[in-house]
Amino acid sequence: MYSTNSFLVFVMQLASDLVSSPTIVERGSIAYLNPAIGGGSMLENAGDGYGEPLNVIISGLSSPAVLKYRGAINYARAIGFSEECFNLHSGGFMSANLGDGNGWVNQTIELRQDYGNAGIGTCLESLIGGNHFRIFVQNGTAADSGALFLAVSQEEPLNENHDIIPDGYDIGRNSLVAAAVGKSHYGGIKYTTTAKNITGLLAPGDDRINHGIAQDGIVTLLTVTID
Questions:
Q1: What DSSP assignment string belongs to 77-138?
Q2: Rg, Å, the chain Cα set
Q3: Which of 158, 172, 159, 157 has the alpha carbon at shortest distance from 81?
Q4: I need a surface site. Which of 110, 154, 174, 227 has the fewest CB within 10 A?
Q5: How far is 129 from 152, CA to CA, in rounded Å?
Q6: Of 144, 180, 138, 171, the residue nearest 55 (C-alpha)
Q7: Which of 73, 27, 59, 56 is nearest to 189 (CA)?
Q8: Quick one: which of 215, 176, 168 has its CA closest to 195?
Q9: What φ, ψ does residue 195 adopt, rounded to 5°?
Q10: pTM surpassing 0.85?
Q11: Which residues fall within 8 angstroms of residue 65, CB to CB, at 6 or more apart?
Q12: Is residue 43 within 8 Å of 53, Cβ to Cβ?
């Protein structure tokens, strides 16, 4: 039988353990976890203290195949994006901390608008500009939601160094969402996508935003189901 002091020590230790233990989010149980809860950020690291907004999330409640590497690429092709021209990446890799216990991790892949041709269309995007996005996966031991966080933006052509166009973060997000919502298909796989706008994850404005381009603070959550 516990004495009063022993019981108080037990309760205090239990409370301490609950506070200090990582938040465990199992795959398939939640759409996403707010990165800020785990010390992360909704801005990817673009260098010099600036970031680009993670303005689209593909829900962890989507069909599991969509959240896998090849599955995400196939879905991207269904909505008008593909791998970079000849799989060549110019420039650096950006990183993000999704608050899942993995810390800052480089992008999984960068995908570009393919102008209707998944084979060579992204070469055209590299020349004349267009929409593109980077994928980061929330899969650490503290938050294994499986959600895909996308940094989407519309960029200038090559002769403008692929800088982001004015209002390019919001324009890029809206363009991707418009292409995604509803029915799409690629490689014999059919998808249905629904969208929900979320506020409160990103602060609107241009504070710490790369290129000083303001954005409206909206993050769009996509739930993708394989039909």
A1: HHTTEEEPGGG---SPPPEEE-SSSS-EEE-SEEEEE-TT-TTTHHHHHHHH-EEEEEEEE-
A2: 20
A3: 172
A4: 227
A5: 13
A6: 171
A7: 73
A8: 176
A9: -130, 145
A10: yes
A11: 71, 226
A12: yes
Q: What is the pLDDT along the chain (227 residues), one digit of tens a residue?
A: 444 454 443 334 433 333 344 567 889 899 999 999 999 999 999 999 999 999 999 999 999 999 999 999 999 999 999 998 866 555 568 999 999 999 999 999 999 999 999 888 999 988 888 999 999 999 999 999 999 999 999 998 877 777 899 999 999 999 999 999 999 999 999 999 999 999 999 999 999 999 999 999 999 999 999 99
Tokens standing for residue 73: 């690429």
Any idea how long the chain is?
Answer: 227
Scan for tokens 């994850």, then name that residue. Answer: 201
Q: Which residues contact 134 (CB under 8 A, 6 or more apart)?
A: 44, 94, 107, 108, 109, 110, 150, 151
